[in-house]
Every structure is written in structure tokens, then in C-alpha cells.
Prior knowledge:
The complex is a heterodimer of chains A (447) and B (381).
Chain A: H1 2-10, H2 15-18, H3 21-53, H4 69-79, H5 90-106, H6 125-134, H7 136-146, H8 150-180, H9 204-213, H10 225-240, H11 252-255, H12 265-290, H13 320-326, H14 328-346, H15 354-375, H16 377-406, H17 412-445
Chain B: E1 22-27, E2 39-45, E3 48-55, H1 63-67, H2 72-80, H3 87-101, H4 108-137, H5 141-161, E4 170-171, E5 174-175, H6 183-205, H7 209-215, H8 223-229, H9 234-238, H10 245-248, H11 269-293, E6 312-320, E7 323-331, E8 337-343, H12 345-350, H13 352-357, H14 362-372, H15 376-380
Antiparallel strand pairs in B: 1-2, 2-3, 4-5, 6-7, 7-8
Helix pairs in contact in B: 2-3, 3-4, 4-5, 4-11, 4-14, 5-6, 6-11
Amino acid sequence: MRDYITSYLKSSGTPGEAGNIFWITVYILLIFAGVALGVICMNWLERKIMAHMQVRLGPMRVGPHGLLQPIADALKLLLKEDLMPEQADSVVYHLAPLLVVVVAFTVFIVVPFGPTHAVTDMNIGLLFMLGVSSMAVLGIVMAGWASNSHYPLLGALRSSAQMVSYEVAMGMAVLTAVLMTSLHGGGIYGVGGVQESGTGTLSMIGIVQAQAGQHVWFVFKFFPLGLVSFVIFAIAMVAETNRAPFDLPEAESELTAGFHTEYSGFRWSLFFLAEYAAMIAVSSIAVTLWLGGWLRPFPNWHGPQVAIPGFWQAGPANGVVDLIFALAPAVAFIGLGGLCFLGAWRMAKNPLFRIQMLGLAAFGALLALAALICVVPAVRDRVQDVFWFVAKVAVSMYLYIWYRSTFPRYRFDQLMKVGWKVLLPIAIGVLLATATLGVVIQAVMGA
Amino acid sequence: MSPTNPIPAFDLKEKTYLDSNELIINMGPQHPATHGVLRVILKLDGEKVLGLECVIGYLHRGVEKIAENRTYAMFNPYVDRMDYVAAVSNGLGYCEAVEKLLHTEAPLRAKYIRVILTELNRIASHQLWLGTHALDIGALTPLFYTFRDREEILKIYEKYCGARLTTHAFRIGGLQYEAYDGFAKEVKTFCDFFEPKIDEYEELLTTNRIWIDRTRGVGTISAKDCIALGVTGPVLRASGVKWDLRKAQPYCGYQEFDFEIPTGKNGDTYDRYLVRMAEMRQSARILRQAVDRIPDGPIMAKIPKVLKPPAGEVYHSIEAPKGELGYYIVSDGSTQPYRIRVRPPSFVNLQALELMVRGQLVADVIAVIGTLDIVLGEIDR
């Protein structure tokens, strides 16, 4: 039994590859909890960040700086009455939110949080992810149809049309990145070492490894082709997840709440959960394909070899740069904890705020503890991949919030025009250019 | 209805149960984008609007009837409740109408303070329009910026008369309150503070690609149609008609101020946006001139304690932020008006909605309702 459990830790594959059911279960639970926690954090962050962009404070009452607000909201939703319109199709109506949530969480099976940190590594990982995530359309159409009401129906129709048309441009952009895994960079990238010519792969882990081998994140490869395809994907993913400025299906000012108008309480919160989980999922695709997945900045730059005491040794390679980057998670946690302490210190010195102040300080202490744990080499090496991945996803999530508070909303026909007449031709052009350039370089290199 | 819209008008009462392409939806009276309790019955072909009918009256309080049972002075606060975001303009129109009936005029100092408060009110009204209009089109942030800056105006009102929204700032014959100490300075400070803020709003929207896409060519209305429907205010001016009652029939001493009437060319939502933004700048310009030149003197004309206007009738209209606001008052010589009829700009402008959106998309209905800048309190009265 013990060997069964520890065998995975010593292996260099994913639990799925090792066929280790115990670790698969652990990973699934961890990812489920992590994504749910991420959604909760997103909820709070979105409200706070948007509030600060809009010269207001956002939630401040429940917990220090409103930290407990998402939990209070979730509780409220759980306790709410579960309403269903009388004329609704009850089976489909109840099935729709479940389907959307299941789909949103299933895609995380192949998301590579690190070279070994994924539930499994499919050789068609990317295809699986795109395929499964596009199933969400079905849930939305079901919800809109089953509600038997005009506004949800319009919302669902808008949503399905939008998701389907943006998937085309998205697919072309994704193809560009996949193509790049098999194309030699021409030896101009990276900080040294030999560049692998790479073999084409659809495996999520394989794609990141290709970026490591070629010494370049695909967003920088064949400049500006990689960048353009990334931008196309970044736009399409906002549309795909129905977020501002492409949030037509839930355009509040037009369709009240779009396809989930008739849902309330827990079922509504499932849609909410699924929307944010889908945002995280597409962001992880973008990070994996273009931003080097779990790779830290300059992954092949190890710096001078130095004699570091065994305990502090960093990962497989042992350079100064490796060590500095390995400490990034701890530094980040310390920074966040410091912010909490600063907030607690600046809080009004009033008995009324005592509990809030202590709570914030305790949260800061928790983060500081996490930082300490992240310094331990065994943890550090396993956590830093996840850290870089999550950090990159977080940047993408921040952009989502930023868009939302900046842009007006597109009209339906304009949205279609952008998708079909602007993004798709550019995406095809970039794909062809990438292929041509790749062939030319290969011919020149004689590879 | 004017024939310039190529899409034929639609009879909503026609049965449509058998036609699966058409959908009738009810927008409002409880809908986030109908600015109150407007109910719009939309007939849609997919997303395309085939026709619509506005149902109003959900906020009807019988203001005109109430007037018949109140004395002239007692009715004054009621007009604030019509266009509640431009209460001062409503008060100005009413007071001036009654003054006209009494053959009297407010003293010059009162007129200047009236102009200052009214122009502040125009800015506040346009700010509220901008915030909600942008919110309807999906830009969330301008709303908070405009409300933040509108607060400064409301603070000036509060200091002047104690109320922020329904101010009841003017009295028939002049003003009740003298301007507080530092009034002129504060208004001037506001102008200095506010003018850069307009640039801030414009930065978010004017050159924003999505904003331009959503507003240019949307809800176009020609000058001819505007005149035929009696549409006034920024909507009329955006169609290229240089008609502003402050210049056309100067009242309250507006002839003494130097300002321009911004006009548009295309009569679309984008032009109306630009016209209103320019109007805010012009209002600030008027404010600067007015605070520099406030004369000394009395603030109340010599009028009797009990108002008994001579029998007769009067129509007086002013340029409210939303268009021509007219009061038609019939007096039978008693202390109470025999009849008051209000010509609210929103009510008349709302007529144009059907013409402007027929053949466009659902999203445009929202944009056009926003750009018409209606207030239901004024429409239903």
C-alpha cells in the first residue's frame, strides 16, 4: 500500500499515466477544490477590482475588506427557494445547470499544472479540452429552451450562435500554436543550449515541453505570428465564455439576465460557477499554448553553478537563477501576507473593528505560514510549477475583469462580423504564414 | 407617422400565433434599461424589431389635475417631481410662466442665480444621462464617474436650499434664499474641477471602437422627421437643426451670455452623444460668465402675498436639458390656476422611438431609449 502511494511521487509522469487510482482521486479532489476556491476568489476579486476601477470600495462589510462576502453569498443562494416556471420542461430544466457544471469541471482533467501535475496526459489533450468545453453550449441552449420564456430563449440563441462562431477562429489560432510545436525556431530563441526541432503534439504537457525544448514561449515565436494568434485566441476566449464586451447572452440591459433569467438559488449559482470555471479553463489553454504553461520565465537560464548547501538545492538543475525563481512562490505569499498585515495595521482603531482586524491579521499569518511551507525544498520544487501556472492564469483573469469595466458591449451582428470577417481571416492568414515560415526554416536548416 | 422609414409600421394587435418567425416581447415596465417604468411591446423577427408600442402611465400622479386644487405658490414644488433629475429647470419654467401671467419679472440678481443653478442642473442631468446611457450599452464604469462628479453639483444645491434632488429652488417672482457665502467661488471651483472630467468621460467613450460601432448610424432621425414629430432638445440639434430656446427666444437673461449651440450632422446616437458632451462644456462656459458678473440687488420682485393673476392664459417654454419644456397656464383670476398643461420634452421625444428603431435590432432599442434621455416622471406626470 505504501509503495503504491509513494510510487507516483518518484515517477516522472502524471498519475493517469502511472495508472495510480489513489493519486488520480487525490488530484481530482484537489483540482475540484482548487477550481471552486478559484471561483470564489474570482468573485471577490472581480467585485473589488471593478469597484476600485470605478471609484468605489466594493464589499467591505462581511469580514475584513469583504473577504467573507463570497461565502455569505453562496450561503444565501443555497438557502433560496428553488423556483421553476410552471410551463418549463422540468427534466431539461433541471439537467441544464448540471451539464454546464460537469462540462466546466471535466476539462480540468488534462490541464497541466506541472510536468507531473495533471490528472492525466492524453495524447489528444487539447482536442479533448476544446471538445468538452464546447459542450457547454448545449447546456445553455437547454436552459434557455426549457425555461419556456422569451428572454432566456433569446439569450440562449445568442449564446449558441456566438460560441459556435468564435470556436472557428479559436480553433485556427490553436492550430497555429499546435503547428509551432513541430517547427524549428531557427536557433534564434532562448538563452543558450540546443533547440529541439520538436515533434507535433496535441498533448497539453507535450505542448509545454515543446516550448521548453525550443526555448521560447509560443507567444514570442515567429514574431509577430505567435503574438497575433495569441491575441486572436485571447479575444475569442472572451467571446467563448460570454464575458464583456461579448456578454450578449446575459446582456443585463437588454435581456435582463439572458439564458439563466428563470433560474434561482442553487441552480443559478451552478451557472455562475460554470461560467467562472470555464473562464479559468480557457485561460489555462491560453497559458499552456502560448505562455509556456508551468514554465518560469527563462526556463533554460540556470545561471552560474554554485555550491548551495544540499537543503537549499533547487530542483534538478542547480544554478543561482533556478534558486531565485524557486523562491518566487514564497515571496508571493509573503507579499500577500504583508498586504494583509498592512491592512490590519491601517484599519480604524476602534473596538468595532477589532474582530475584523484580528481576522485580517490571522489571514495574513496564514499566508505567511504558506510562504514558510513553500520554502521547504521538497514542497518548493513541487509547488513552483503550479505557482507559475496559476500566476499566469491569474493575469489572464485580471484582464477579464479589466475588459469588463472598460468596454461597452458589442451588438449581436457586430459580434458576428468581428468573429467571421476579422478574426477568422487573420487567424487563417497567420496559420498559413506560420506553416510557410516553418517549412522555409526547415529547408534552410536542412532538418 | 412620417414615411421616411422604409420598414412599414406594424399593427401589434394583429394575431401572430401562427407565424413562428415573429415574437412579441414585453420590455418593462420592470426592466433595467427602460429608465423607470416604461413598457415597450416589441414585435421581433429574430433580433430585428418589426414594430413597437410604448405603454406609459405607470407613474401617473395627475400632476396637472393637482394644480387645479392648489394655489400658484403651492403647486411650485410639484413641478420638481416631474423631471426629477432636472428639477431646477422645471421650477424655472413654472416660475417664469407664472411671472409672465402676473406681468412681472424677477430682478437681475435672481435671474443670474437662476441661470447658474439651471445650468448646473443641465450638467447634472446630462451626467445622469451619460452614465445610464453608457450602462445600457454595456460600459459600466462611466456611470460611477458621472455620479461622483454629479455629487459636487448636488452639494452646491444642498448648500443653497437644503435639498439635493427636488430642490424647489425658485419662487414665483425671484428667489427665496440669497446665495450663500462663497457661492460664486464654489461654482467656479466646480467649473475648474468639472471641465477636465468631461475629457475623462470622453476618453472612455468618444474614440472607443465598440462605442462608435454601437452608436454610429443607430436610431437615425432626420431633421424633417424631428420637426414633424415635435422633437426638441439635443435630439433635434443632433439632426442638424440649430434650435435652442435659450438663443431662439431668450428668457431669464440668457441673451447676456456668450455661448454656442452645438449641433450634429447625422442625427444618430453618436451625434446626440457628442452634442450633449459639447452642451456640458457650453454650460460650464455660461457658468463662468454668470459667476463673474452676478450683480447686486434684490432677489425678489415686488409681488403680492396672495397671488391672483389676472384672468387669461399664457404659454411659456424654456430649454430644459431634455428639450422644450412648456407650461400653458389658464387663469380665471382666482388664487388657483384654472388649468395647467405641461409640455414635457421626454413625452414628445418618446414619440420618435418607434420611427427610430423600426428595422433595427433589439440592442438598438436600448441604445435609443437611452439616447432619447427620457424621464418617466415627466412623461406620465
